[in-house]
Design goal:
Elements (H helix, E strand, L loop, with lengths): L8 E4 L10 H13 L3 E7 L3 H10 L4 E5 L11 H8 L2 E5 L29 H20 L4 H6 L1
Parallel strand pairs: 1-2, 2-3, 3-4
Helix pairs in contact: 1-2, 2-3
């Protein structure tokens, strides 16, 4: 806190939950900081609905950071309803699917492009995803906006 030049951290969120540590221990440590006035709110990142529910029952979780986009909708069946039920905000990351939803129209990634190692950018997956992106591009053109604007909206 000294290096940051602040007396309190507004939002404290571990980057990931350590599977070897009970979530109650992690949340409890942050709750202690909140009770001491060193932090204001608790956040979590990349937890499933069971972990979210357990954490929230121990101390109120304000927000959950998790990947969510038109390309990655895995949170919709379980995690999103749990967050809504508990009043927990979702902070979506990767909303443009590593650039895929920004209107990528070519399967050619440079050799040093780290996305080439991701499943959605590999061979048949990329070909299928580019078909979907073509539809997004067409819809965006009809709405006079960019594919990224439409994907985020």
């Amino acid at each position: 806190m000294q290096r940051l030049g602040v007396n309190v951290i507004d939002f404290y969120q571990p980057g990931r939950i350590d599977p070897a540590v009970p979530i109650e221990d992690t949340v409890g440590a942050i709750a202690d900081l909140i009770q001491e006035g060193k932090a204001r709110y608790l956040g979590l990142s990349e937890v499933n609905s069971y972990q979210l529910r357990r954490a929230h029952s121990f101390y109120p979780v304000t927000a959950l950071e998790i990947e969510y986009s038109l390309a990655t909708r895995m949170i919709e069946p379980d995690i999103l309803p749990t967050a809504r039920e508990l009043g927990i905000s979702i902070v979506a990351y990767n909303v443009l699917g590593q650039g895929l939803l920004a209107g990528l129209d070519s399967p050619d990634l440079s050799e040093d492009d780290s996305r080439a190692n991701l499943p959605r950018f590999q061979k048949e997956n990329l070909a299928k995803n580019l078909e979907t992106v073509a539809v997004l591009n067409s819809m965006a053109a009809k709405k006079n906006c960019t594919p990224a604007q439409l994907a985020i909206a």
